[in-house]
Amino acid sequence: MAKDSKTKETNTKESFKAVHRYVPMSARKIRPYADLVRGRFADEAIEKLSCYPARGAKFIRQTIYNAVKNAEDQKTSGKTSDLEVIDIRVDSGPMTKRFRPKSRGSSSIYLKRTSHITVVIG
Questions:
Q1: CB burial class (10 A; 0-12, 13-18, 19+) of residue 51?
Q2: What homologous superfamily does CATH list for 16-121?
Q3: pLDDT bucket at 13, cuts 50 / 70 / 90
């Protein structure tokens, strides 16, 4: 087999990542706040999310803040103020099953959902 002569362009921008796993909240409730800050600068995103009292906004804000701190630890040159939220993902995590009593001695199952938040800045 001959190798393809085309080479992929490598992204010269450094990226830094933070992951918050097992967030005790449904991914469906967190995703609207992730959509608010996707593509914005990290400082601006943290500021914008601090205005929202919802728990989902708090979890996203903490994860972006941790990604900025990871960048400060690992970055050798440049400013951390020009970091942009490149990618932000909210995936569903494992669910635990709980039982709620119902009428006539029966019960029904409800799920306590968790989620994983992944933030990439660069």
A1: exposed
A2: Ribosomal protein L22/L17 (3.90.470.10)
A3: confident
Residue-by-residue DSSP string for 20-80: EEEESS-HHHHHHHHHHHTTSBHHHHHHHHTT--SHHHHHHHHHHHHHHHHHHHH--SS-S
In angstroms, how far is CA 7 from the centroid of its own chain? 31
How does pLDDT run across 48-84, given as a tens digit for each residue? 999 999 999 999 999 999 999 999 998 766 677 889 9
Whether 25 and 115 have beta carbons less than 8 Å apart is answered as yes
Asked if 35 and 28 touch (Cβ cutoff 8 Å), the reply is: no
Q: Dihedral of the CA atoms 75, 79, 82, 86 (nearest 10)?
A: 0
The structure's pTM equals 0.84
